[in-house]
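Chapter summary example.
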Amino acid sequence: MGYQVGNTCYATKQDADNVYFSLVAPVIISQKTNTVATYPPVKFLKRLPPKQPLQNGGVELIRPEYIKGQWFLQGKVININYPSCDASKNFKDGYELGWAIFGVMAACYFVIIIKRLLR
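The structure predicted for these 119 residues follows.
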């Protein structure tokens, strides 16, 4: 059994976690303007409710962090469940599709050869 992230099947949960959380875009919170900015930029900015003052000049970067083999978001461990997949089934599907395409190409090739012989 594997773990599916996107269209790729990974053998271990750790590999799937690393790929999934590495793709997450960071969020920047600014207390000066009381807004959230994301990358890539969006057309609107979300207003934040008033909270405690932020460090670093009123700007905070929120992103998943990899510490000692686990992923954390704002100090809490992140656990996620992935759909199951089977790497050998993916290989079999590709193998069958490859032979089907080869069969169509071979049939077209033989039709062209037969046409040339009948001229």
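To summarize the output: Residues 2-86 form one domain.
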